[in-house]
Design goal:
A hairpin with a 2-residue loop joins strand 1 and strand 2. The chain is globular. It contains 4 helices and 3 strands, in the order H-H-E-E-E-H-H. The chain has one domain. Helix 3 packs across helix 4. The model has no long low-confidence stretch (mean pLDDT 85). It is an alpha+beta fold. The structure holds zinc ion. Zinc ion (ZN) binds next to loops. Zinc ion binds next to loops.
């Protein structure tokens, strides 16, 4: 007998993993001073978190997406995730629901 996790289970574990990592990140953020946060922002703002290349802002439908010209990854700001989710029942909106 083979065990195949259902979609709901996979979603549950993805959310669990995300919550765990979020907690650790939040604890780390508490240890940083306002000055350190400001310095980090200056260094990383609008730069790809994977390769450090400057991101290009692209408007897609009603959403502004920051895209990396090198690795083709893209990033969304907090409110923009909600816009995509509310738009329609697409694959992307279903994926993003996990991280809400
Ligand atoms: Zn990149």
């Amino acid at each position: 007998m083979s065990f195949k996790p259902s979609e709901a289970e996979e979603e549950y574990f993805a959310r669990l993993e995300f919550e765990k990592k979020k907690k650790i990140a939040e604890e780390q953020m508490k240890l940083l001073s306002a000055k350190e946060k400001e310095d980090l922002k200056k260094t990383h703002f609008m730069h790809c978190p994977k390769c450090g290349i400057e991101l290009i802002m692209v408007r897609y439908k009603n959403v502004e997406v920051d895209e990396c010209p090198n690795c083709k990854g893209f990033w969304l700001d907090a409110g923009e995730v909600e816009k995509i989710i509310s738009e329609k029942d697409s694959f992307l909106s279903n994926v993003l629901k996990i991280f809400k």
